[in-house]
Amino acid sequence: NVAMFKAGFVALQSMLEHDLLLAYHDRSDGGLIVTLCEMAIAGRSGLSCDVSMLGTDQLAVLFSEELGVVVQVLETDCAAIEKILNDAGVESLCHRIGTPVPTGNLEISHNGKLIIDESIVDLHRAWSATSFRLQSLRDNPECALEEFELIQPQQKPNLFSKLSFDPTDDFTTLNFANTQPCIAILREEGVNGQIEMAAAFKSAGFSAVDVHMSDIIAGRVSLKDFQGIAACGGFSYGDVLGAGEGWSKSILYNARAYDDFSQFFDRPDSFGLGVCNGCQMMSNLYQIIPGASHWPRFVRNKSEQFEARFTMAEILPGASIFLHGMQGSMMPVVVSHGEGRIEMRQGSAQQLLDSKQACLRFVDADGQASEIYPVNPNGSELGLNGFTNEDGRFTIMMPHPERVFRSIQNSWRDPGWGEYSPWMRVFRNARRWLA
């Protein structure tokens, strides 16, 4: 019934517009029972449901895959929601079927009989068992087991926001609106993150200029005309030469590029940020970046797979100009890399931590540094995934702050953040440092 489908869709959009929906899931593969299981697993909450009003045939009620949705709402919003449904003419299609409960079980009744009473943890483990076995064969079996064993009762939310600063404080607009210093948004063949990087720096008051490595090698562009550089993420040379290795070699083994970058790094008024592939590349320039001799290189993830995830990171004490005033903060960030595990050239990861050249690390739901997969998606020792040089002007990190600098870009966000996420401070700090 196309008319009913449209009316139902419009009603849901109205609920969304008025912020009345706490959760939503379509009924599709597996039917209502799978929808409820997935919602309970995702919400880590028990559910108590009575499906008697949906029909007399239990199997049809639970396993029908016809079009439908399940939404979760506040009891105090039910009157407003019922009005929306009545106005749309779809009230006869809608039913109250249950409520969240603290028991940790999925309970489903039909005609006064309890037909399902299962632990959410047991259901989650059963749901994930096939993936775990396949993952154990295809990937690193140790990582597969670590991920499977994270399915526990009373599991804490993996994503949270604990900040040491106010993310709504936009000092760039108040103090630096009259000038726009130039930053070179660097890219090489295969790099794909330049648009997000440029947008983030532009929002912080910079004039972002697209600079391809061929421009520098040919002499069409020189870094002497820029205050800062940002080396972007992606897959330079398809990563067939290793993590950022090809990109770094195009600098180290080309006289013009080598001189241009060396002179830029030596200037006391220059700064630079390397993210993901740009982080890998800059880590290989450690010999020409002052105070970066202890930076690690980056090798294949412990999981042996490309990892694209939303995970938690903590800002560590240190001199990085990009992370000024953010120390101690913990918030989610995007990672997207296949070669992000640190490998020390000299010294140890603990020495980097002690010297405050490590400035970022992965943390678990308790805010503790973690080497457990997938909380730590690449397996780096001590969870370390971001580093700065001794004077803080140059920072490299595997996560992508430029992909989550606006709150709306985050798959989970704290409603108190406002327009911009806490990661916007990274780019605003660079602008403040130049003032």
What does this protein look like?
The protein is an alpha/beta fold and 435 residues long. It has 14 helices and 17 strands. Strands 8-7-9-10-17-16-15-12-13 form a nine-stranded mixed beta sheet. α8 links the parallel β7 and β8. The longest helix is centred in the first third of the chain and has 19 residues, at 120-138. The mean pLDDT is 95.
Can you lay out the helices and strands and say which pair or pack?
Blueprint lengths: L1 H16 L5 E5 L3 H13 L2 E5 L7 H6 L4 E5 L5 H11 L9 E4 L3 E6 L2 E7 H19 L2 H9 L21 H5 L6 E6 L6 H10 L3 E6 H5 L10 E4 L13 H8 L2 H12 L4 E5 L1 H7 L13 E3 L7 E9 L14 E8 L3 E3 L5 H6 L3 E5 L21 E5 L5 E4 L26 H11 L1
Parallel strand pairs: 2-5, 7-8, 7-9, 9-10, 10-17
Antiparallel strand pairs: 1-3, 2-4, 5-6, 11-14, 12-13, 12-15, 15-16, 16-17
Helix pairs in contact: 1-4, 2-5, 5-6
In a few lines, what is going on in this structure?
This protein is 32% helix and 21% strand.
Q: Mean pLDDT across all residues, rounded?
A: 95
For the biggest sheet, the summary is: 9 strands, mixed
Poorly predicted regions are none
Distance between the termini: 62 Å
Q: Tell me the number of strands.
A: 17
Range of helix content: 25-40%
Structural class: alpha/beta
Q: Could you give the order of strands across the largest sheet? A: 8-7-9-10-17-16-15-12-13
